[in-house]
Amino acid sequence: MTAGAGHPHGPYTLYDLEELPEEGRRHELADGWLHELPGDLWHDNAAEQLRRILKEAARQANADVHVAGAPQEVATSAGIRRPDAFVVDRDVARLALERRTRTYYGPDLLLVAEIVTPRTASERTDRVRKVAEYAATGIAHYWIVDLEPRPSVTVLHLDGAPDRPAYRARRRARAGEEVRLELPFPVEFDPARLSEME
């Protein structure tokens, strides 16, 4: 793994993360360590489809939001995460643009979604670590998207006491079923769309 010149063996900082050459690879910074995010055509296509679905739903509802994904990033208690898709209020996105930053903070996010890459280290991160991190950061909705054996979306909603935030599963929608959710705008789609190629 490529590291910053000042810390060839870690722990790493945000500066080390920013110094990494892109080369088509993505990394996250968690607990002082750089983690390469797996990606393939299947994963990247699903992330693009999900962002397109969210943008379309927001446009139809005339919602004043911004839909984004990696390489834009989210600051958590563990470090820097680069979700596959997320939604923020448009004013928050404008402020980030004015400040020339690509980092957003948990309470500003309305939704974050991760596409699971099975049989990789990031699968456990998406299903366990990020569930705790994103809840502690105050992100209201977290979607975990599985592509195998058929596309499905697990919808988690922030619940619990303010001092112990936790996600509760609202439902799991599989291909052939409709995901329906009210963000600041209504979203409705069949998870099968996530495997379509355009």
From TrEMBL:
<feature type="domain" description="Putative restriction endonuclease">
    <location>
        <begin position="16"/>
        <end position="189"/>
    </location>
</feature>
<keyword id="KW-0540">Nuclease</keyword>
<dbReference type="GO" id="GO:0004519">
    <property type="term" value="F:endonuclease activity"/>
</dbReference>
<dbReference type="InterPro" id="IPR012296">
    <property type="entry name" value="Nuclease_put_TT1808"/>
</dbReference>
<dbReference type="Pfam" id="PF05685">
    <property type="entry name" value="Uma2"/>
</dbReference>
<protein>
    <submittedName>
        <fullName>Uma2 family endonuclease</fullName>
    </submittedName>
</protein>
<dbReference type="InterPro" id="IPR011335">
    <property type="entry name" value="Restrct_endonuc-II-like"/>
</dbReference>
<keyword id="KW-0255">Endonuclease</keyword>
<keyword id="KW-0378">Hydrolase</keyword>
<dbReference type="InterPro" id="IPR008538">
    <property type="entry name" value="Uma2"/>
</dbReference>
